[in-house]
Each structure stands twice: as C-alpha cells, then as structure tokens.
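Troubleshooting log. The previous structure file for this entry was overwritten by mistake, so regenerating from the original sequence record. Sequence copied from the archived sheet and checked twice against the printout by T.R.
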Amino acid sequence: VTDYAGNKAVGIVSADMYLDNDKPTISVGNYTETTNARGSVTINLIVKDETTTIKEDTFDESDIEIKVDGNKLDVSNLTLTRESEVSKETLYKLVINNTQYDGQVSIKIDNWKIEDIAGNTNSKFEQPLNIELIVVTLLVLKYSPNVISFKFEQL
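Regenerated output below.
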C-alpha cells in the first residue's frame, strides 16, 4: 500500500470486520392447542438471532402483553423463565395464570423489548394463540338447621 506521496506502508495488519444488524426475531414454539383451559397454560417463546446471543437482563414479564378475549391480563399473572440457549435460539417458558377472563388468548411484544449483545432490538410481535381460557366458579352451599347459605368462589 502506497500513499499519494509515494510512501510505502510498513507493518499493515488486515482484519475482517462484520457488522451485526440482525434483529432478534420472536416465534411461539410448541404448546398444546386447547379449548376450555383452566388455571394456567404454558407456552414456549423462541427468540432467534442469526449472529449473536440475547442479553439476559433485557426481557421479562413486563415486556409481554397477554389478552384474553381482548382484556389485558395483569403482569402478575405471567411468569417468564429463560430455559436454554441452543445454537442461535433462546427458549423462554411463559406461564399464563388466568383467574379473570374467559376467551381466546393473544400475545404481543412491542418493539425494542429484547436486545442482543450487539445492541439490536426486536420488531413488534403479535399473534393470536389457539388457546381458550375459562374461569371456573364454584358454588359453595352451606346448610344448617333453618339456614341455607351460599357463595361463589373462583378456582
């Protein structure tokens, strides 16, 4: 290599450089499609990144919106666990506990919620799930002489 003045470069080291602009992508893994699910349902979320790994502290329950029949579940009803990382995929287990609403379940994760170690973030992910949740209500009857009482309790 020679500059415009004719000086030859000495001791040049070449290096390959890769620019990582790959965003993490989200998909729903295996889950049991069901109707009339009671209590809790577990689904697998797969976060894939073509070149790097996902930062461990950038994705939690507060980043996920679960709706049942259009009603948003409180984040306290969700439990997210990072299960494993294999090749270019990170598996998360999401447990949805429903004691409030009946109906079809959908999931949404907004932009910029999951970050890889290169600083790239996800695009919005939204998907209906083939799961229908129901709330079970139990009628409790109590009988004593001359008095019958009852109350409804959610299971």
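The CA atoms of residues 40 and 102 lie 13 Å apart. Archived copy saved in two places this time.
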